[in-house]
Amino acid sequence: MNVSKDTYKTISQPSGEVLFKEKNSKFFGYAFPVVNEEEVKVHLEQLKKQHFSARHWCYAYQIGTDKISFRANDDGEPNNSAGMPIYGQIQSFEVTNILIVVVRYFGGVKLGVGGLISAYKTTAQMALENAEIIEKTIDVFFKLTFDYKNMNKVMRIIKEKNLDIVAQKMEMNCELLFSTRKKNAETTFDIFSNLFEIKIEKVD
């Protein structure tokens, strides 16, 4: 992802269930927005309960914008016949912070590796086409520390620069957490770091 790009694509909410059939096998596809591996586990557990008599629960996910983490899982299908075709669709649609699960009920007829790759890819594609893909900004978070007397000065800049306040603690010593788009982060940091009696630090 290049430095100047400060947006990414993901899905707004879980997609509805899609169904693809091939030679009596049924493939149910789902797409979920996720931000960490814990959420991935939760969705997988729920689907395993929902489809307890299925044969395979294959999935792929990608999380992150600058630092990408991803995983593709064949769950007992032949190597790279399920997880990677699903992950290929995540790449093809250029989405991140997403989990796609394809649940397979075996229909008694073997599909062969080529047939499996095609079925998992198609089901993942259908799940993504069934989801609403949205663009989000990559935001950078900063913490400001200042005395109460400097409150007006700080708030004026926050308003002028249209910064989003995430949290604030307003006492004699004030702390304020705000976010800004990645492309504005450096300028914003410079504005506050040049102010007298105001401390700014980046928060990961």
Automatic annotation (TrEMBL):
GO terms for biological process: regulation of translational initiation. Pfam families: Impact_N. Residues 23-128 form the Impact N-terminal domain. One of its GO terms (cellular component) is cytoplasm. InterPro entries: Impact, Impact_N, Impact_N_sf, Ribosomal_Su5_D2-typ_SF. It comes from the Bacteria. Belongs to the IMPACT family. This is YigZ family protein. It comes from Flavobacterium piscinae.
